[in-house]
TrEMBL record:
SUPFAM superfamilies: Cupredoxins. PROSITE patterns: PHYTOCYANIN (PS51485). Keywords: Copper, Disulfide bond, Metal-binding, Signal. Residues 30-125 form the Phytocyanin domain. It comes from the Eukaryota. Pfam families: Cu_bind_like (PF02298). This is Basic blue protein. One of its GO terms (molecular function) is metal ion binding. The keyword tRNA processing does not apply.
Amino acid sequence: MSQGRGSAVFAATMVLCLVVLFHFEVAEAATYFVGGKGGWTFNVDSWPNGKRFKAGDTLVFNYNSAQHNVVAVNKGGYQGCTTPRGAKVYKTGKDQIKLVKGQNFFICNFAGHCQSGMKISINAV
């Protein structure tokens, strides 16, 4: 009988620990507005410098959707300012993108925009 109660207490303790861990993980996620007040525009490639990003953080891209977009690309797409087949293209002007662990690359694929610094590379830990 006491063995059953001990197992129940252990299970309840484990569930409580998981809830607390999950709460802290969610509470630590941050929201960043890409480019600050200027938004997602030309010459934002240095905007991530000095910031510490984590997987689960959200990037908010604010821009005029008639003039720009946001494309999640791989390293080759970032370096070459190209859009790989199957790349996710965002075009609402108020896009919110959750970072994944590792390198995250974003460009604007309107002609000449990426080459004018409208791209960012972020390493999320």
